[in-house]
Amino acid sequence: MVLFLVFNHREDFAYFADICFKSFGDRVKYWVTFNEPDFQVKYGYRSGTFPPSRCSRPFGNCTYGDSEKEPFIAAHNIILAHIAAVHVYRTKYQESQRGSIGIVLHCMWYEPISNSVADKLAAERAQSFSINWFLEPIIYGRYPREMQYILGSILPEFTTTEKQKLNKGLDFIGVNHYTSFYVKDCRFSACEPGPGTSKTEGFWAQSSQKNGIPIGEPTELSWLNVYPQGMDKIVTYLKHKYHNIPMIITENGRRKTEALMHKETYLYTHNVSCFYIGYGDVNKADSTIDELLHDEKRIDFMDRHLESLSTAIKKGANVKGYFAWSLLDNFEWNSGYTVRFGLHHVDHKTLMRRPKMSATWYKNFIAEHRKCKGPDQQQLEDANDSPF
Fold it and tell me: What PANTHER family does this protein map onto (predicted)?
């Protein structure tokens, strides 16, 4: 990620993308330039908990970095690298290969903690300083107005030529969604220091509770809440804000965690600041394979989130697909093999794979809903090679 502090490496990324399009475009029909760049810049260049581990106090304790400037430089170069790759695909390959290209953001839903104007604006700022930070430039050619007003000269500017290339710079929005939070204003009200509360983060604070009542179904820990309604709300929000550009739910799921952290259910966090990517329960040290395969909570999580997604679709959201995270237990970014998101269990010693109950449930879910479709709709989806 250090390369995204360097201007000319955008061209290197476009060259790399060109090789991928040329080599695999006859088989790959859905291209993603970056996965969760909003998290990459926050944790790679602000808190320093992700590579390249750059930050400055009070956001983190790193050898190098500037937490108040580098996240915006890195994000700016990632956006322009994305557009460079999209330009290559659209001008050289898309017409013949008939594929689509987009970007994936980690999309949490932020609910205003009150009906006050200040808290409603804070919830919008939370989105502006996360997903809209990337989507507004890529689709509209400009940074969110909230970012422009608060950051001023800290925010890099696009040239006239870059703005022209940025217009409608994707074919679909990839949505990774797991959880939701309440948000309160920190611009006109005093807040304890924490994620989001500083000027360069947008002056907002998140909480999983409102007046002591959790936002969703609580688990053993007070800050772990299941809020399926957030799926409907974030998809509907994106529908209205970006004129119903096609969306694909690229990640949604829950995880089990190896017995080296807590003895209770807990929420997966990317860093000590508690930005969450999913929820799950901890495997006991003496867990048997049979216990690991019976993942009823994952089934409940998926069932309720798919129902919420169905609500958004019935209201007109242009959702083209849903991908559960994940097919297999895998190497999970900075958590390695200590967490399990898979619908299939993997024995990390023997690599033996076994379907969990959730895999069978999901297979039956897809089969049942395909039966509900008319022949005309099914033929259309088959012709379009729909990922759903």
Answer: BETA-GLUCOSIDASE 46-LIKE ISOFORM X1, GLYCOSYL HYDROLASE
The residues, ordered by sequence, that sit 6+ positions from 120 with a Cβ below 8 Å of its Cβ are 112
Q: Tell me which residue range forms the domain holding 82.
A: 2-108+134-179+225-374
* Residue at 359: amino acid letter: A
Alpha helices, DSSP H, located in 167-220: none
Residues paired with residue 321 on neighbouring β-strands, in sequence order: 248
Q: Which tokens sit at 250?
A: 């690229």
Task: Read off the CATH number of the domain in which 74 is found.
Answer: 3.20.20.80
CA-to-CA distance for 139 and 32, rounded, in angstroms? 15
Structure tokens at 339: 């967490």
State the catalytic residue, choosing from 36, 124, 201, 332: 36
Catalytic (active site) residue 251 = yes
What pLDDT, in 10s, does the model give residues 33-67?
A: 999 999 999 999 999 999 999 999 999 999 999 99
Q: What is the pLDDT of residues 328-364, one digit of tens each?
A: 999 887 778 877 889 999 998 999 999 999 999 999 9
Model pTM score:
0.88
CA angle 308, 388, 341 (to 5 degrees): 70
Q: Which of 111, 136, 251, 332 is catalytic?
A: 251
Integer Cα distance of 204 and 164 in angstroms? 32
